[in-house]
Amino acid sequence: MYLRGEEYLSIGSYFLVLGTLISAIGETMQGSDIENTNKKLIRNGNAVQALGNTLQGFGRIRLTENIEEGSHLYGIIGSFMQAGGNTINSTASNIEIENPSPSIARFNSVGSSVQSMGAALEAAGIANREGDHLNNLEVVGSSLISVAAMLDSAGILIKDEMSIQKRLLLATGGWLEFIGASIGAYAIIKRDAA
């Protein structure tokens, strides 16, 4: 089956919205009795996001097959970096369910930092290509994901699981990522429909 670049981007954006929603719900849940459910949602949400970012990376490659501009490289690398960061998050969350430790928390934080850098690169790649107002929306969406992933990275490093600061950083980061993914998906799907 052959998919166009826009179709990869659209399908990937659906996965991103779904994955960020699942993760945001997990980041918002509180209480020691639901902690494993919380971590499982975060793990699964990040895995779904990694799939979405990978599809978008392939879509960006497909879109640039006949273009020789270097600016598109940022978007491609950014998509795959986000997939890598989400994979690290998913793996670390899975390990934390069975064996929580400070080193795993740091590993998880690195994943969010990688995701943040990837989203920033993707935003730069999108901003450098010619387009319309939908490009601007897609840049806003990727930028929000970048900021949200950095908030998530900082929140993960706070040791006290029930601290207000940790819960606020994680919940804000999770929902901001969902909003960013939704804005990006809207721009991608609207452009594909045009």
Describe the model.
With 194 residues, the protein is mainly alpha-helical. The protein has one domain (5-193). It has helices spanning 5-28, 35-63, 71-98, 102-128, 133-157, 164-193. InterPro entries: DUF6944. Pfam families: DUF6944.
Order of helices and strands: HHHHHH
Low-confidence blocks of residues = none
Report the strand count.
0
The number of helical segments is: 6
Count of all domains: 1
Round the mean pLDDT to the nearest integer and report it: 90
Q: Gap between N and C termini, in Å? A: 23 Å
What Rg is obtained from the alpha carbons, in whole angstroms?
Answer: 16 Å
Structural classification: mainly alpha
Helix content: over 70%
Share in β-strands: under 5%
Main beta sheet strand tally, sense and closure: none
| Principal-axis shape | elongated
